[in-house]
């Protein structure tokens, strides 16, 4: 997507807002997680149903002040270009290396799937949307938490700009270290769900997912994918769990609401 094509007129914004509301409503009928019926994913059932019934839609996760920011470890993949990395991708690893050496000037987030305007967005394109900054607590499934400040583009704005079509229910993400994961439209349209390029007032550091990572403040840390490469809007649920489960010790739930 070129810069000029994503300049939104007032009219487009209004239709956009209406279509975002339409997208959000689609999710209203959901009572069971899409992983329902998968034995490996049984832990999703109760938490998803309880959250969706009990927590007001788009209730904000707690935000903190600058003085609350803590040190923040970088864990999991910290450089997708490193061939020794556990989830090094033979195709995307070298590609990431090339982009990194060019200071990510050639980076593009690919957007496709159930959208009217598939395309790709540079960091400059994404920065043209009104950004959001939030200081939140990251909770890792391994038992640690840390508070950091994140700046990025609300995912809802990008979904409107690329024309997510009615009936869109999930947003799938693929990363440069070959992770796949998805969130539903309730979380995708949540005001604190952002595509973050900044952390603690600076560009997002490499170890924390440069140049672009997801922040999903309503779920555990592993849903906040780092090193975003592609985003696909879908009508149907795609669960990479059967193949990937083996590599995740203990098996991580698809839905990890907090
Ligand atoms: N692409 C990618 N995203 C990822 C991971 C990863 O290894 N690769 N680790 C996840 C986990 S388990 C956590 S806790 C956070 C860690 O983010 P941080 O390195 O900024 O602390 O990123 C999540 N997103
Ligand atoms: Mo984690």
Strand and helix map with partners:
Blueprint: H1 10-28, H2 43-54, H3 92-101, E1 109-113, E2 119-121, H4 123-127, E3 132-139, E4 145-154, H5 155-161, E5 170-175, E6 180-184, H6 185-188, E7 194-199, E8 202-203, E9 213-215, E10 228-234, H7 241-244
Parallel strand pairs: 1-10
Antiparallel strand pairs: 1-2, 3-4, 4-7, 5-6, 5-10, 7-8, 7-9
Helix pairs in contact: 1-5
The structure holds the ligand Nc1nc2c(c(=O)[nH]1)N[C@H]1C(S)=C(S)[C@@H](COP(=O)(O)O)O[C@H]1N2 and molybdenum atom.
The ligand Nc1nc2c(c(=O)[nH]1)N[C@H]1C(S)=C(S)[C@@H](COP(=O)(O)O)O[C@H]1N2 binds at residues 72-77, 140, 175, 177, 179, 207-209, 221-222, 224-227.
Can you give a write-up of this model?
- The chain has 258 residues and is of the alpha+beta class.
- The protein is built from 7 helices and 10 strands.
- It has helices at 10-28, 43-54, 92-101, 123-127, 155-161, 185-188, 241-244, and strands at 109-113, 119-121, 132-139, 145-154, 170-175, 180-184, 194-199, 202-203, 213-215, 228-234.
- The strands form 2 sheets. A 5-stranded mixed β-sheet has the order 2-1-10-5-6. Strands 3, 4, 7, 8 and 9 form a 5-stranded antiparallel β-sheet that branches.
- A hairpin with a 5-residue loop joins strand 3 (132-139) and strand 4 (145-154).
- Helix 1 (10-28) packs across helix 5.
- Residues 72-77, 140, 175, 177, 179, 207-209, 221-222, 224-227 line the site of the ligand Nc1nc2c(c(=O)[nH]1)N[C@H]1C(S)=C(S)[C@@H](COP(=O)(O)O)O[C@H]1N2.
């Amino acid at each position: 997507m070129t810069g000029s094509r994503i300049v939104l007129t007032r009219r487009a914004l209004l239709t956009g807002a209406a279509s975002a509301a339409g997208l959000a409503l689609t999710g209203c009928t959901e009572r069971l997680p899409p992983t329902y019926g998968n034995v490996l994913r049984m832990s999703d059932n109760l938490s998803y149903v309880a959250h969706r019934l009990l927590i007001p839609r788009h209730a904000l996760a707690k935000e903190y002040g600058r003085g609350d920011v803590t040190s923040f470890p970088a864990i999991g993949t910290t450089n997708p270009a490193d061939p020794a990395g556990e989830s090094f991708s033979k195709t995307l690893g070298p590609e990431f290396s090339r982009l990194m050496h060019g200071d990510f000037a050639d980076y593009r987030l690919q957007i496709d799937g159930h959208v009217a305007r598939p395309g790709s967005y540079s960091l400059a394109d994404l920065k043209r949307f009104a950004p959001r900054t939030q200081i939140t607590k990251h909770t890792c499934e391994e038992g640690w938490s840390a508070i950091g400040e994140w700046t990025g583009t609300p995912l809802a704005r990008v979904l409107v700009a690329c024309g997510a079509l009615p009936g869109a229910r999930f947003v799938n993400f693929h990363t440069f270290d070959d992770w796949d994961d998805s969130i539903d439209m309730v979380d995708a349209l949540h005001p604190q769900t952002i595509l973050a390029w900044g952390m603690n007032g600076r560009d997002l550091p490499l170890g924390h997912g440069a140049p672009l990572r997801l922040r999903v403040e309503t779920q555990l840390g592993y849903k906040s994918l780092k090193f975003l490469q592609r985003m696909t809007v879908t009508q149907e649920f795609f669960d990479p769990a059967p193949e990937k489960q083996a590599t995740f010790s203990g098996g991580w739930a698809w839905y990890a609401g907090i």
